[in-house]
Structure formats: C-alpha cells, structure tokens
Amino acid sequence: MKASRFFVSTLKEAPADAEVASHRLMMRAGMIKKLGAGIYTYMPMGLRVIRKVEAIVREEMNRAGAVELSMPVVQPAEFWQESGRFEKMGPELLRIQDRHERNYIVQPTSEEVVTDLARQEIRSYKQLPRNFYQIQTKFRDERRPRFGLMRGREFTMKDAYSFDRDLDAAKASYQNMAQAYRRIFDRFGLTYRAVAADSGAIGGDLSEEFQVIAATGEDAIVYCPDSDYAANMEKAEALAPAAPRGAATKPLAKTPTPGKSTCADVAELLGVPLATTVKSLVLATDVLDDAGNIRGSKVWLLLLRGDHDMNEIKVSKLAGLDQGFRFATTTEIDEHFGCKPGYLGPLNLKKPVTLVADREVAVMSDWTTGANEVDFHMTGVNWARDLPEPTIVADIRNVVAGDASPDGKGVLAIERGIEVGHVFVLGTKYSKAMNATFLDEGGKPQFLEMGCYGIGITRLPAAAIEQNHDERGIIWPDALAPFTVVVCPIGMDRSAEVKLAAETLYEQLLAGGVDVLLDDRGERPGAMFADWELIGVPHRLVISDRGLKEGQFEYQHRRETAATKVPAAGALSFLQSKLAA
Amino acid sequence: MKASRFFVSTLKEAPADAEVASHRLMMRAGMIKKLGAGIYTYMPMGLRVIRKVEAIVREEMNRAGAVELSMPVVQPAEFWQESGRFEKMGPELLRIQDRHERNYIVQPTSEEVVTDLARQEIRSYKQLPRNFYQIQTKFRDERRPRFGLMRGREFTMKDAYSFDRDLDAAKASYQNMAQAYRRIFDRFGLTYRAVAADSGAIGGDLSEEFQVIAATGEDAIVYCPDSDYAANMEKAEALAPAAPRGAATKPLAKTPTPGKSTCADVAELLGVPLATTVKSLVLATDVLDDAGNIRGSKVWLLLLRGDHDMNEIKVSKLAGLDQGFRFATTTEIDEHFGCKPGYLGPLNLKKPVTLVADREVAVMSDWTTGANEVDFHMTGVNWARDLPEPTIVADIRNVVAGDASPDGKGVLAIERGIEVGHVFVLGTKYSKAMNATFLDEGGKPQFLEMGCYGIGITRLPAAAIEQNHDERGIIWPDALAPFTVVVCPIGMDRSAEVKLAAETLYEQLLAGGVDVLLDDRGERPGAMFADWELIGVPHRLVISDRGLKEGQFEYQHRRETAATKVPAAGALSFLQSKLAA
C-alpha cells in the first residue's frame, strides 16, 4: 500500500475523555473515531488491525472444525423471551420496536438464535458434534461505556457455539476450543494467561478466561509462578490454613475503640496486626411463603479476617445463599445486633444469626472483633471458649498474594489482565429452555449439551496496546500490525534516486509477500517517523540520499532505539529474516 | 473442505412463503434460514457465496483507490436530524432508544456518518479526492419484506462515498467508480446492464444502476439493441414523434359510450385503435399563502395516449409540479370537469385547468377522449380546431418497446432486471446540510462535492440465482459458487480404492489452489448428485470403482446433461483448463 492511496490521519493530542493508553493511542493514531458514547468508527488504519485479528481467529476456528455462519444483528425478541433473557438481561439489552410495534433486540450474543437453529437442523446423534461460529457486530448498552474499544457498546465478537450428545462430548469440544484459543493467542504474539473461571451451575473446570497481561487490566489474575495454576479472582480457591489453630492466650475483654469503625483503624489504635482482626459482613435472604410472597428474612453474619475481602461468587454458592442474597438493612442489623455497622461482631447478639466463618477465621485465636456496642471492640476472642465453634466454615474470601496455591505447588501471585476470550460449557441451560433436542441411538430425544466460546475481536487490539506501547506510541506484534513494514524515503520529492530506490524496494517487498506501506506523502523525516512510531509499525526501513551513496538503507525495529545499516541489495532477505524471527 | 467438516443441509421442499426461485432455492440449498420477517441467518453454504462477493468487491474497490473503513451499525440520531433524514425517512428507518432514552437508528446507509467524518478529517483541497467504503450490516424496515434476500430488512451493503473539490472532480470520481463496478460485475460472471437512472436534483448523466438481467426482475430496463443506450424506466426519454401531426379528417362528435370508462373499452366499442384514444389524468398542487398555509389548489390535466403510462418521475420535474403533487380529489374534479372520472377530457370544462400534453398526444389528430359527461366520449378531436394548441408539451410517459432510441440509433427494447448496484453523484446535498467544507487554494471554505456508490452484497447471490437456475437447482458462475468443484466418490465407505483416489484428488486440487469440496458424507449417488445440483456447484468430478478400473473419473459441468470421462492422472490439468475457461 502507498500512503498516498491510503488514509493516514494522526493527532498530536488525544481527546480529554481518553483515560487509558490504548484509547489515547488508537485515537491519536487515527485508528478509531468516536461517533457516540461507546460507539466508534473503525478507521482504515484500525480496520486493518481488526481484519488481521479476524483472519487469525477464522483460520484457527476452521482448523478446529468450527463452521462459520452469520446470524442477524437485529433479532426478534420472541427467542429471547423463550430463554428468559429478554427480562433477565435488563437495560444492557438494546431493545427495538419495528414499524408494526413488534419487539426486537440488537444481539449482545447469539445463544438463543443458534439454539433455535440447532433445534431445527440437528435431528440425530449422527450430526453431532457441531460447532458454529460467527464474527459479527454486537451491542451491549453498557451503563458507563469507556476506555475506547475496551468497554464499548458496539463491538465485534467472534462467538462460537458447540453442540454435543452428552457432557463428556461437550467437555471434549470445550478442550478442542481451548486448544484453538491457545493457538490463536500464541499467533497474536501477546503475553496472556488462560485462567480458570467460575462456570456457574455446571461446576468443575469448565470455564476459562483468556487474559492479556497488562498493568492497566481491569481483572485480577491469580497464578502460581511455580506451577501452571491460574484462575481469575472469582474462581481462585483460598485453601484452609495448614497450621492448626493456636491456643487461647489472652482473656476476652471489651476494649474502648472510640470512633474506630474499621478493622484498620482498630488495629492501629490497639497496635495489633490487621490480620488478628475479624470483620463482620451482614447479609440477608428473604423467606418466602408457599405463594412466593416475602414473609420475612433470614440474617447471615460472615466473618472475614480484617485484611481479606469477601468473594461474592463464592458466597453465592453457599447453601441457603445460592438463591440470591442482599446486604442486610439497617433495621435488620439493629434487630439482630442492637448496634450500627462498624462495631458488629458475633458476641452479645440480640437475636441469633446464621454464622459463616471464612476458613482463615476458623483457625484464628486471640482475635479482635466488634462488640455490638458503638465505640467498643472485643479483644482476645477465642472459638469454643467465648463462642461456639463455627458450624459453617467456608472459603468466602478473595485470595491474596502469598496464599498457598490450590495445587499445592507454591504460593500465589497476582497480576492484572484484560479478558479477551472466554470458553465455557453451558450444559443444557438453553437447550432445555428452548427444547432443543436430538434423537439418540435408541430414538429417544435428548437435550443438546452446549458450549460457548467468545473472543472480543475489537477489544483485542486495545488489549494488545495496553501491553505493548511506550511514550512514543503503539508497538504492534508483527501479527497485528496494520502494516508490518514501513518504507520511509527521505526527500523523495527532491531526489530521483531516493524515489527510485524506495519504489523498487516497495515493489520487491510486495512481491515477497511482505505487508508493506510506502510513505510517499512527502512529510519531513521527523513528522514521518513520529507518525509511524505512534501508529506502531514494527519494522521501518529508511532510504536517504546519504545512505544510498553507501549503498545502504537504515533498518530499525520499533522496540529499538537506534538504526542498523543494511546493504540495499540484501534488504528483502534481511527483512524476511527479521519477520521470521 | 470436506463435507464431514462442513455443514450441508438441503430440503426437499421450500417453505410456502418463498415466492421466487432464488428464495426457494437458497432455502432448499441450506444457504439461508429465516429468523423473522426479512431477517435471515446466512448459513455456512450461503456465507461462502457472500464472502466471495465481498472479496471481489473489496479487491476492485481497493484497486480503484477507495479506502475501507467500518462505520457503526447503531448510529446516534443527531446526525440524521442534522441531515433531515431522521424525519424524512419515515418508518423505513429503524429507531431505537438506549437506556438513557437517547435516540439512535440502525444504519440503512451512512451518508450522515461519513459526512461527519469528512468534515472532521478533510481540511484542505490537498486531501482530495477521497473515497471511503465499508461492507457492513444495514437495516431497512420494509413495509413488506419478501423474496428472501432480494427484499430483506437486514442486509449487507457495500457503500462507498467520494469527496471532491468540485463537480468536475466529482464526475471523475463517479466515472472511476462506474468503471470499477463494470469490472466487479464482469468478474461475477453475470449478464447485467449499467442503465442510466434519474439523478434527482443534480441532473445530467450522473446516476447509473447496475441491473442483473432476469425475467423475474422487479425493474423494467430500457435499452437499444443497436447501440449502447440503456436506462431504467424512470429515466428513459420518450422522444417527440418525428412525423408531423396529420390533418383533421373527422368532425368533432359527442359519441355515446355507455358504461365504457376506460380507453381500452372505448376503443373496443368504437372499433378504433387504442393509440387513437387519449386518457386524462387529473393532478392537483396545493396553493399556499405567505405563512405557508394551504389557501387552495391548482388542478392539472395531463393527457396521455390511451396505450401509454404516466411516468411519475418525469411529471415531478415539470415546473409547477416539482414541489410535490397529488391526485385531485373527487370534489376538485367535479368542480372543474362537472363529471366523475372515466369520462374526463379537455373539452367542455366547467373551470379552467392547466393542461399538459404528452409529446405523443400533441401530434395526434382525430382522437377520442372523455366528453366530461357520463357515458359519452368526444371523437374526431383535433388541436387548434376543437381546442387551443397545448402550451405545455412534455415527455410525461413511460417509453414502450419500439419507441425510438433517444440516441437516434434504433428502437428501444425492454427487459427485466434486478438492481444490485447504484452509482450516484450526490453533489452538496449532505455537505451543505452538515456544513462539511474544505479550504481551497485561496484558503476559502468550499462545500465538499460527494458521490455515493452501493452494491447489495447479500442481494447479489439472489439476483445471480434468478438469472442462473434450472428445475434441478442453482447454477453458480464459478466466481460466486460456494465451492467451485465438488468431488463425489461413490461407495467411499465400501471401496478403499475409491476413498484413496478421492482423497488424493482432493488434496491435489487443494494444492493446486482449487476451491474444492470432497463429499465424504457417504450419501447414495442419487441423493449426493441431487444435493450438489441443488446447491449449484459448477464442476463435479465423480469417482467410482467402475471408473477407476478404466483409470478414469467422470466430469460434468452443472450446465451439461452428460458426463465426460477424464483420465484420472490428468484430472487436475483438465479441471484447471475448465476453470480458466
């Protein structure tokens, strides 16, 4: 491509609302253009990157035996009503009425439509397994779209859906997809982790997220440097402490802690480690009568170490809390604790609550917690002596760095990531809701076992940039760059030699199958180099009169700070060796 | 591709609502699947065709210097309000409100968004000309979607937009696109015509439609077999008759025509040619006062030969009718003619009307028309003698076969076509509405001159089928076929020789760059052949035990009725010669 026939449009300044590097750099490099909140035009430079992502994903999906189709962007609501998601999804689902006032939605994913397709097309076990995928425009009406393509409203997703005869076969399809995803992310040239994720009702290790590692990532990723354990924060298990509980050494005492309503403040006041304090979280579940009306509520007290955070997903899986819970109201708290939040604890309750102790709390001795009296905490608290041994002990906290790895092979570390892919066994959730069955060998109808597999096609370039940029701009991995090589002639309009050499090299590289751009815009060297460093083309060849006198071009990789001289005659093979590297 | 890794799903019967061949065949061949009214999933087999259309369009657009980008499907209404189309487009424009009750639309085209982009990006004449295109999902909420992909609501369109410094440059951009379109449609391998179309306010020859010729086409195309003149019916000019008006030979007479209210009935009753009758069409235009309120109306009488039809586009360009017109009400008709429709004419008026005579009517003598009295017509009517010479004579009719060609080189013929492309000079309609300017050499802001260029990507396969099918199914041109070649082994599961030969041939063809499918499904020959004839793969190679004994495969083109024996060893080169043909 010649720049004069392309569209290069860079900006000195990023717009004020661009908060993260990828957003700023994609705007400045002329890759995207904002049309509305979370809605972007993919400009020619950005579209080239997106097309490269698509091409790699498509190749590997095909290789893995998935078959491409394309489902409608605008979908009749009836399918979504059938699955129940029309109501459940809330305002994130963009709803439309057509001229006849019939309801439609703009697809955020396509489980319903693909399940409808499967129930019509898949009649026999002989047609299984099946995997359909599409690369298509999606829309999620995010409450707060931001970070450019990272959390947009309109985006492109590759979504694949597998159909199998039973759960074992579904797991095999899932593993096949997880392997394809590894090939895809390897080919992108990004540093990433496949981390175990919560798989909801299905259970087991049937969900993984593919996270591009970046300090600015929204997600915390838990991994073990000494093994291949990796999970997202929701999923990572905090093991029960190996050491047994220490003996009680301190007396139980009510200690004044005026105005100190957080564990951190109390620990500081008392001069004890934060890890010896215990915080109280009060939840409530509604109690329904046979007619389904709310008849009352049940109050739960969760005890966590002062330096630990509650893990909502883990809590939501406990018996009794797995049908939904909420934080208790001040009325409920007052009724059971006789005290306002900030000084709550498991002792001196007005009315019994259901107590859940985190595994870590269950082995503590001599701990500090609220006294259920404003401005007082209890110190020297000990299980069995001061209150009954907890009957419910569970993992209800987020892991922290240094926790033992669940695979027993070391301790956990935490880093930040950006979720760009997700593989998931769905089970029969949609096939049951929509009655999608096939006939087994015995001629008996069985529900299809499904899996779903997503890749955020337009989020991926943003994630790649968060991981690969510097103060000058983007640094694309070769596989994702809008152009792999840029040829920059200096003074092309003044020097016939430079022009000839540049065009000859350009034609040579093109003929050699290199994705090359010739910058024939006639910009001054400084502006030209700044543009391509901002845009992030990984390989640059500079042609100048001075270099030509020595029979040389100058090569510089985007990550390098100085150029290398390359004999003009050997430029193609030099570059090919660089590209193969 | 192996069929076992693809998705082949054919139907014996087409659904009842499939009215045209392309719709029936695409449904039966498993290319599309209906999700809702005018909304289809592109199934794997159909998507392959669409991708081939896209690839050819993309290559030729790039070759012509257009640059690809991708604009949002969901667009903020504010841009459409700026251009005025938010109101003007009516219910065809699909409207949405997001969670914040802000208005959006689903793009039917993207003039507004691309004009907004241009007004931000194009600052100087040095950046011109520019042409941006996209291949993206569109939606038009058709009142009556039908014919499958031919008139769907959701569809894929390639839309390109050119920006130029003045009208001459815009015309050059337009010609460049028209040339690219010719290359595109040539490459598709379809019989088509580029026909002149009405270019609205711009005037001149600045709009062409690309019509795929098919007996079932919705559009009438006018062309001259002896020249390259071609236009759509709206545009094709009916020349003034060359022969002068004949002398009056008959007396004017009021003739009883009881119950005969159409020209055809009157001609039959009187035993005269239909072409000697004149029909009256009564239009009205509102007369406004200075405040823009309707103060009254003006009534127009259009006279057309009995065998001719009014051309609404031509009428809408006449001075006085060019701001909009309507058919007259019965009250208006009664007030001016004193008679009900069916017997109206230019004689014996109660109140004067503005008379417009078609060019053909203006040279008639001894004609028949309504008497403005129920059950009577006037015969032997002659201009000058019986009523004044017409002051407004214009081309207001559709041409008919046999009319003189406007280029003077023969007579016109009419055939049917399906519009699949349109090139159009827009002028400054959008750039003025949205204030999209650039600075000229003198530093003065000028409005951008625009052009727009569409190709119905998903309609194209349907049009190709309307032109190319038989009772057995689709007959794809090579360039559009989902697979160019199908290898059909007979008894692959029973014969190791057949299996080996089929797989070897398949690998050979793949390596030779042939887009081949190996049907390894194990279907019986009859069902297998019927599937591929229905799907329309142009080249078929059959491998059987019997043939192998003679060292031969059987080749048959989809248009042929008998197979040719091909030496197994030479199959690749044989096929390559067929594909090159």
Automatic annotation (TrEMBL), chains A, B:
<dbReference type="InterPro" id="IPR045864">
    <property type="entry name" value="aa-tRNA-synth_II/BPL/LPL"/>
</dbReference>
<dbReference type="Pfam" id="PF00587">
    <property type="entry name" value="tRNA-synt_2b"/>
</dbReference>
<dbReference type="InterPro" id="IPR036754">
    <property type="entry name" value="YbaK/aa-tRNA-synt-asso_dom_sf"/>
</dbReference>
<dbReference type="GO" id="GO:0002161">
    <property type="term" value="F:aminoacyl-tRNA deacylase activity"/>
</dbReference>
<dbReference type="InterPro" id="IPR036621">
    <property type="entry name" value="Anticodon-bd_dom_sf"/>
</dbReference>
<comment type="subunit">
    <text>Homodimer.</text>
</comment>
<dbReference type="GO" id="GO:0004827">
    <property type="term" value="F:proline-tRNA ligase activity"/>
</dbReference>
<keyword id="KW-0963">Cytoplasm</keyword>
<dbReference type="InterPro" id="IPR002314">
    <property type="entry name" value="aa-tRNA-synt_IIb"/>
</dbReference>
<dbReference type="Pfam" id="PF04073">
    <property type="entry name" value="tRNA_edit"/>
</dbReference>
<comment type="similarity">
    <text>Belongs to the class-II aminoacyl-tRNA synthetase family. ProS type 1 subfamily.</text>
</comment>
<dbReference type="GO" id="GO:0005829">
    <property type="term" value="C:cytosol"/>
</dbReference>
<protein>
    <recommendedName>
        <fullName>Proline--tRNA ligase</fullName>
        <ecNumber>6.1.1.15</ecNumber>
    </recommendedName>
</protein>
<keyword id="KW-0547">Nucleotide-binding</keyword>
<dbReference type="Pfam" id="PF03129">
    <property type="entry name" value="HGTP_anticodon"/>
</dbReference>
<keyword id="KW-0436">Ligase</keyword>
<dbReference type="InterPro" id="IPR023717">
    <property type="entry name" value="Pro-tRNA-Synthase_IIa_type1"/>
</dbReference>
<dbReference type="InterPro" id="IPR044140">
    <property type="entry name" value="ProRS_anticodon_short"/>
</dbReference>
<dbReference type="InterPro" id="IPR004154">
    <property type="entry name" value="Anticodon-bd"/>
</dbReference>
<dbReference type="GO" id="GO:0005524">
    <property type="term" value="F:ATP binding"/>
</dbReference>
<dbReference type="InterPro" id="IPR004500">
    <property type="entry name" value="Pro-tRNA-synth_IIa_bac-type"/>
</dbReference>
<feature type="domain" description="Aminoacyl-transfer RNA synthetases class-II family profile">
    <location>
        <begin position="38"/>
        <end position="477"/>
    </location>
</feature>
<keyword id="KW-0030">Aminoacyl-tRNA synthetase</keyword>
<dbReference type="InterPro" id="IPR002316">
    <property type="entry name" value="Pro-tRNA-ligase_IIa"/>
</dbReference>
<keyword id="KW-0648">Protein biosynthesis</keyword>
<dbReference type="InterPro" id="IPR033730">
    <property type="entry name" value="ProRS_core_prok"/>
</dbReference>
<keyword id="KW-0067">ATP-binding</keyword>
<dbReference type="GO" id="GO:0006433">
    <property type="term" value="P:prolyl-tRNA aminoacylation"/>
</dbReference>
<dbReference type="InterPro" id="IPR007214">
    <property type="entry name" value="YbaK/aa-tRNA-synth-assoc-dom"/>
</dbReference>
<dbReference type="InterPro" id="IPR050062">
    <property type="entry name" value="Pro-tRNA_synthetase"/>
</dbReference>
<dbReference type="InterPro" id="IPR006195">
    <property type="entry name" value="aa-tRNA-synth_II"/>
</dbReference>
<comment type="function">
    <text>Catalyzes the attachment of proline to tRNA(Pro) in a two-step reaction: proline is first activated by ATP to form Pro-AMP and then transferred to the acceptor end of tRNA(Pro). As ProRS can inadvertently accommodate and process non-cognate amino acids such as alanine and cysteine, to avoid such errors it has two additional distinct editing activities against alanine. One activity is designated as 'pretransfer' editing and involves the tRNA(Pro)-independent hydrolysis of activated Ala-AMP.</text>
</comment>
